[in-house]
Amino acid sequence: MMRLSEDARGVYVIAITPFTDTGALDLEGCDRLVDFYLEAGATGLTVLGMMGEAPKLTVEESRKVVGRILKRVDRRVPVVAGVSAPGFAQIDALTKMVMGDGAAGVMIAPPGSLRTDDQIVGYYTQVAELIGDVPFVLQDFPLATGVQMSVSTIARIVNTLPTCVCLKHEDWPGLAKITALRKEGTLDRRISILCGNGGMFLPEEMERGADGAMTGFAYPEMMATVVEHHAKGDMERARDLFDAYLPLARFEQQPGLGLAIRKYTLAKRGIIASPALRKPGNALDATTRGQVDRLIARQETRLKELN
Amino acid sequence: MMRLSEDARGVYVIAITPFTDTGALDLEGCDRLVDFYLEAGATGLTVLGMMGEAPKLTVEESRKVVGRILKRVDRRVPVVAGVSAPGFAQIDALTKMVMGDGAAGVMIAPPGSLRTDDQIVGYYTQVAELIGDVPFVLQDFPLATGVQMSVSTIARIVNTLPTCVCLKHEDWPGLAKITALRKEGTLDRRISILCGNGGMFLPEEMERGADGAMTGFAYPEMMATVVEHHAKGDMERARDLFDAYLPLARFEQQPGLGLAIRKYTLAKRGIIASPALRKPGNALDATTRGQVDRLIARQETRLKELN
Amino acid sequence: MMRLSEDARGVYVIAITPFTDTGALDLEGCDRLVDFYLEAGATGLTVLGMMGEAPKLTVEESRKVVGRILKRVDRRVPVVAGVSAPGFAQIDALTKMVMGDGAAGVMIAPPGSLRTDDQIVGYYTQVAELIGDVPFVLQDFPLATGVQMSVSTIARIVNTLPTCVCLKHEDWPGLAKITALRKEGTLDRRISILCGNGGMFLPEEMERGADGAMTGFAYPEMMATVVEHHAKGDMERARDLFDAYLPLARFEQQPGLGLAIRKYTLAKRGIIASPALRKPGNALDATTRGQVDRLIARQETRLKELN
Amino acid sequence: MMRLSEDARGVYVIAITPFTDTGALDLEGCDRLVDFYLEAGATGLTVLGMMGEAPKLTVEESRKVVGRILKRVDRRVPVVAGVSAPGFAQIDALTKMVMGDGAAGVMIAPPGSLRTDDQIVGYYTQVAELIGDVPFVLQDFPLATGVQMSVSTIARIVNTLPTCVCLKHEDWPGLAKITALRKEGTLDRRISILCGNGGMFLPEEMERGADGAMTGFAYPEMMATVVEHHAKGDMERARDLFDAYLPLARFEQQPGLGLAIRKYTLAKRGIIASPALRKPGNALDATTRGQVDRLIARQETRLKELN
Questions:
Q1: Peptide linkage before A173 cis (omega within 30 of 0)
Q2: Domain boundaries along the sequence of chain A
């Protein structure tokens, strides 16, 4: 069985959930999406994340989406599933469901009520006990959760909970945190660090010791490229390509609007049939669509110049 | 079929959810709890609320609890169910489930991301459309949700959405809001206003035009008494009795710890078998239990003096 | 020179700032206020606190108020001054000003941006270095600041910063925190713990090892009485008197409205000439004033019954 | 006398405050800074903003900084001063001080406690009355203040308060808000809209009807260039240049770290003598400095290619 481990690297794309124009699940779209992500260079997938509109799915729908994606992936890459929930009973049920279906591990964000270091460590200690030997990703995303984890708090979690194998690093941007975590002596063992924020800081993150990205962007090939060129030691080329994608990446990273832009772009690229978000959610107005179109056109021109 | 309406008054007790010591559902405890609440003077019940640990239940468990409580109530009083959720698909599914099982209406809190008046009105307009002719309670609880609804915002919701029949008023304490809502001309029709905060401001709320309470307290008879004496025009007696319960009510209203105190007291009163909260949740230390015991003893003495 | 120390006990009343109806400083009112607080049993005063409308005063006005109060107190009790500010330059200037005028120490709240234990300890370490040998009160008031300090964080601050001599405990209500801090081994030395929240939990706090209160209430004699009877070992009498004041104390503790109620009551008692708050601030409507009047009348009746 | 008006356009640079390595004010640095900003194309300056470390200055220091900058500007461009404060007495005192010294207007952010539309409109109505005929900038920056202003709320403020002449638009990124405000019928009169966020969305903002920027960036010439080329109708050229600066602009927009990066860059460019922030504040580690250096080098190369 494929299990997430400390060796996770590359690009774990946070998968969107495709809907039809009327908000129904588009399961065939899931298949196309999986193919697209893997062709773009994904080394893993993460499903039921915030940007996957997971909180808008019923439990039955969550199961259908995860099942369909796992089937299409067919063990080619590991699939991580978000299982964050207010209560342990729900986390337990979700974890059993996704692991039973073939997920490689789960991702857990801290509830927004946690504040002190002890509360955070206490929470993850209880969660780790709950899910047993299932490997988990520690999601550090203060902008969304309101919970700030210090380096020493992350170290306490990693050093006492062996099933914590990966940090989804999204402390905006928290570059110094990566450096501190990679410093000898901070952690008892080397875990995987995959970064978020739509890849907006990926070159700088790789230089500081990140293993790749776990985030979404309508052009995941950008992230795969940066990781690949970093591995080859060609950071100048990585930066040239990164810079070509940056104007659009920046536009897609807008809070609130970002997911609608991502889905619009994926629909425009022909990956999904409809750009629709489920309610409550935003649709793009004509002006925004025009601005995205122009950014894509300029990006294509720039990429041609670089090739 | 029993449906919640603008005439709702008295005490809608926010039901706790009883668990065994190991965190399993205690469905027989649900029966005893229903009997206790009705004997204490409840004119309605509200299930799956925040203080019912609803977010810690799986969907299946929620169904079991609601079904059991509805069966035991057996149409003697209306039962409202909380159906707040991040996505409309979940709200829709939950609403269909509880209404199908015999609930009289649903209660919906605003998502914490809403800020402007237009966002709040827009959200409830979409929700009301979603749930069709199901009557709903507008939950106004800024301390927990972070969303503040002005009088004019509540008026816009009430005046445009006929299925909004009741306001659960928990703006701490927002007494002036009740007065403003009851002022002629503010609302196009008179809706029910039931108050929260553990009944801590109930005498003052009744004087300003509230119809009763929709909240929890280990002695719901206190709230029934206040409402009853208010109806009789005997507010001095209402206040005398209220004051006797206040020291304990204050202690139970502590954020974080309150539900543990409530369950401890209900267990001590013999209503539920175990005071256990589901994880993540607090247990009471011995000192706190001792302080609750003393408050209860003093309360009993004081009530005897008053009778 | 009088300096705040670990021995601080009793009631340090958080002084209001009296204004005229038009919002001008009422310096003569400061004199009457000081006399009233000391007669009511205050063992200290705290000025320029949040409930003293300190953020609404200009620097010149702050100086005038502090100077006037210190002069009137005339070394009879220690006076602590709040010096919280966004920048160290301001904290430094304020501290020098109030200590030069004769204050016994300063009180410092954490900036709302602090989250992790390390950030909190780091902040106080820098502040303590800045103010040198001036004794300070650590203000722990999560409801207002958004900053939660764990027991271990407070212990780190106390154990490394000898000028931290007192904790203003206002973690709502955080009774278990007092017990933990008083447990042998938690702190290297015994510091003063004075409690907040308008005295709403004072009997329970004293039982757990608090040294008294540092908070406001229009009847500070209530707090002095509880502390006094606790010292005599007569907690039943302390509770009887506490309970008599509780209905009003509860009403005064309403967020947003509380200070207006306190000032209205103090004006009604003849201590200050005007109940006015400075803008931006709330005034009481007639219904609220009527409800306060009734609570005061009932309180007087109950106190007579007890004497 | 120069007064801010609805015609404000171009780039109002949010001025940093230069300190020496030990945290003292560097008033000569203020002169060089003014010269640099004006040479870079600033059409106005904004002082005492959040990114100017205003909250870390004492009142005396604020006066010195404003006075020095106004003297050096010598009426060549309008200077706006931030006067946000918790109380009206302080806002009043600050406004009188800066206007007396020759400022063209003031900028006022909403206190974080405001939530409902009515509260926001009420606050600005009171503030406008307080400052009389002084023109003011409405600061809309939800990420920092927590206050969200809807289009209709801004319209109510603009349409009833003639002294509101400019909106500092920093709703991240809130592009649709600009479009809505520029739609005929939304506002009774055309006010100036100057955008924030370090210029990260300036091309898209200009296309939607913004008049320019009011924000900071270590290369303010980027913003001046975008505005200038937009005015000439050459948006392609504007975007080419914008894209060249974007990798650094993105890096400088990091919350928490951004100001330290800006000051480091300005020091590296020789504008200010020291990159120091006042305490509490962050310094850059060597790795971050190296990353900034590389971004600057790449930016220079790219700009050469474009010229």
A1: yes
A2: 10-233
Q: Tell me the count of A-D CB pairs closer than 8 A.
A: 67
pLDDT grade, residue B1 (50/70/90)? low
Which residues of D are less than 8 Å from C87 in CB distance? 53, 55-57, 278-280
Of A115, A150, A153, the CB nearest to C148: A115
CATH no., domain D10-233? 3.20.20.70
Give the DSSP per-residue string, D186-255: TSSS--EEEE-GGGTTHHHHHHTT--EEEE--S-HHHHHHHHHHHHTT-HHHHHHHHHHHHHHHHHHT-T
Closest-CA residue in chain C for A142? Answer: C115
Concatenated DSSP letters of chain B:
-----TT--EEEEE----B-TTS-B-HHHHHHHHHHHHHTT-SEEEES-GGGTGGGS-HHHHHHHHHHHHHHHTTSS-EEEE---SSHHHHHHHHHHHHHTT-SEEEEPPPTT--SHHHHHHHHHHHHHHHTT--EEEEE-HHHH-----HHHHHHHHHH-TTEEEEEE-SSS-HHHHHHHHSTTTSSS--EEEE-GGGTTHHHHHHTT--EEEE--S-HHHHHHHHHHHHTT-HHHHHHHHHHHHHHHHHHT-TTTHHHHHHHHHHHTTSSS--PPPSS-----HHHHHHHHHHHHHHHHHHHHH-
CA B180-B181-B185 angle, 5° bins: 90
CA torsion sign for C141, C142, C145, C148 is: positive
pLDDT in tens, C180-229: 999 999 999 999 999 999 999 999 999 999 999 999 999 999 999 999 99
Flag if D90 and C57 touch (Cβ within 8 Å): yes
Contact A194, A166 (CB under 8 A): yes
Closest partner residue to B118 among D118, D142, D150, by Cβ?
A: D150
Q: What is the pLDDT of residues C268-305, one digit of tens each?
A: 999 999 999 998 877 899 999 999 999 999 999 999 99
Rg of chain D (C-alpha set): 18
Q: Hey, are the CB atoms on D239 and A247 less than 8 Å from each other?
A: yes
Say how many CA atoms lie within 13 Å of D252 toward its Cβ: 26
Distance CA C296, CA C140 (A): 30
Q: Do the chains contact at A152 and C118, CB–CB below 8 Å?
A: yes
B-chain residues within 8 Å CB-CB of A126?
279-280
Residue in B173, B201, B246 nearest the CB of C246: B246
Q: How many helices (H) and strands (E) does chain D have?
A: 12, 8
* CA–CA dist B181, B184 (Å, integer): 8
Query: Which CA distances in Å does B236 have to B149, B204, B233, B240, B243?
Result: 32, 12, 9, 6, 10
Task: List the single range of B24-33, B133-142, D273-282 with lowest mean pLDDT.
Answer: D273-282
The torsion region of residue D74 among left (phi > 0), alpha (psi -120 to 50) and beta comes to left
Query: Which of A173, A246, A287 is opposite residue D246, by nearest beta carbon?
Result: A246
CA D130, CA C121: separation in Å to the nearest integer?
40
| Structure tokens given for C201 | 């939990």
Task: Give the whole-angstrom CA distance, residue C30 versus residue C272.
Answer: 8
Beta bridge partners of D192: D166
Distance CA D106, CA D12 (A): 13
- Helix locations, A108-234, DSSP H: 117-131, 142-145, 151-160, 175-182, 202-207, 220-231
Say whether B58 and A111 touch across the interface (CB within 8 A). no
D129-138 in b/e form (b: 16+ CB < 10 A) is: eebeebbbbb
Q: Are B247 and C246 in contact (CB < 8 Å)? A: yes
B88–A53 CB contact, under 8 Å: no
